[in-house]
Amino acid sequence: MNILILSDQYLPSTRSSSILIDDLIQELLKKKDKVTLITSTPESKKFSNKNKNLKIIRVNIFSWNKKNFVLKGINQIFLMAQVILILMKNNKKFDKAFIYCPPLFLGLISLFIKDAKKIVNIQDFFPQNAVDLGILKNKLIIMFLRKIEKLVYTHNDFILVNSPNTKKY
Questions:
Q1: What is the rounded distance in angstroms from the CA atom of residue 54 to the CA atom of residue 36?
Q2: Does position 60 have pLDDT exceeding 90, yes or no?
Q3: pTM of the complete model
Q4: How many whole angstroms separate alpha carbon 104 and alpha carbon 73?
């Protein structure tokens, strides 16, 4: 099976999402699936891929201060645009696509993936978590982001969540 995985983080990054994605990839490789991972995590000399069934495509994003949420949003849009261009350029067919969210904008990429079962793993509800934390207050931006969130949920075949309360949401 040919599987596409989209995640903004992967090894050598030690974030929980990197480890979760690596666990998924290792299980798929055990089943002899072919996996293409597109990530924004930079390459490191400490990490090397020697498995011929795993293709890792790393895209560049800007460095930013983690507290600058405007730049973080621009970075996520930039990441999404790069992934879309890669998919259009490679024109490769996938049987399944697994998209790790956040970032929310990665979920929109499913609109550009044809003929594959699309699975989105939702970890945080954005924009709701930003509203709850008082980070996002502009009603127009919140409304716009909620429309994007709805698109993500309606244009994917499966939505994975991590709790019963998240499922209710």
A1: 6
A2: no
A3: 0.85
A4: 10
As a whole number of angstroms, the distance between CA 44 and CA 51 comes to 16
Inter-CA distances, 49 with 35, 119, 120, Å: 12, 24, 25
**Alpha carbons 103 and 8: distance in angstroms, whole number:** 7
Considering the segment(s) 2-164 as one domain, its CATH architecture is 3-Layer(aba) Sandwich (3.40)
| Residue pair 101/155 in contact by the 8 Å Cβ criterion | no
pLDDT one-digit tens code per residue, 36-56: 999 987 776 667 778 899 999
3-state secondary structure the chain: CEEEEECCCCCCCCCHHHHHHHHHHHHHHHCCCEEEEEECCCCCCCCCCCCCCEEEEECCCCCCCCCCHHHHHHHHHHHHHHHHHHHHHHCCCCCEEEEEECCHHHHHHHHHCCCCEEEEEECCCCCHHHHHCCCCCCHHHHHHHHHHHHHHHHCCCEEECCCHHHHHC
